[in-house]
Amino acid sequence: MPTLSEVARHAGVTPATVSNVLRNRGRVGEQTRQRVLAAVDTLGYRPHLAARALAEGRAPTLALMVSSIANPFYPEFALAVERAARTSGHFVIICNTNEDPQTGRAYLDQIAGTLSEGVLVTNANLDFADLHTTEARGTPVVLCMWERPHEPPGLPCVAVDFRLAGELAGAHLLALGHRRIGAIVGSKISGIHAARYQGFVDAMRKADVPKSRVKHAADTIQGGYDAARALLETDPKLTAIYATNDLPALGAMHAAADLGLHVPDDLSVIGITDIQLARESRPALTTVAVPTVEVAGLAVSLLRELIESSYGQAGQVAASVPMRISSPPELVVRASTGAPRSR
Prior knowledge:
It is built from 13 helices and 12 strands. By secondary structure, the protein is of the alpha/beta class.
């Protein structure tokens, strides 16, 4: 593989000039720039990213921490992050924690500040103390999809009003005439979906509808399936199920089918997020869409700002912790919800 010095000799310039051309830095005449690019093309030179990171003390990559790459939301979000990062010449390293804090801590220790210039964190079940430590070492951290805009997390973040998303879902079912509604929460009581459930409860309270039956479950199709069966077997007269994410909602539809119920004639189902599977399921899932692509762009942009600033550098004290708030979630009505009929 040709080296940078060989490219410089071939082009008749210094290695520093080649470096400036490849990084689009410094003042290089157009003829010289073209000569360098021609030498790069002729020799087939490709920069050694690890060597560049060591030489410059910064890496051309960003780390994206996700809780489970098996959850279809995260590949969709990662794709949006990768597209946004490419515009600034960055690559993206996907760090799958499998919801294990120790795995997440190992990624932070081994990648943050060495292989990556900054860290984007989704719901990866990471200890905030570890994130603050990473930040204190000089590697900026941005939380993506923070679910409670009115409760700042103490770290830079991009927030989505998921409480509003839950309220929109509940209001939709109420507007259709449902009053016996079960809820599936894809986290523990005080977990990451708490705001989504609280918004739903707010909608019920405003309509003076009695408290719904609720099951806390794994944020998976199987978790939604098991929770929906339990709800429907306990209360066969339920006419609708609200799930705090699309995967449990899809599981609820599967459970309804196995119980001989038709969606939406016998049971309406609604979720939150609007992943691709929600659009492709049959019936297609009514959901409350969150602005995934927008959030990815905002998160990458904020992280780049922090990288270029003094925020988070060792020994520096930030005047304020930045937060970006996305556009509000939007109801997307599809075939899985309709007016109730008595059973």
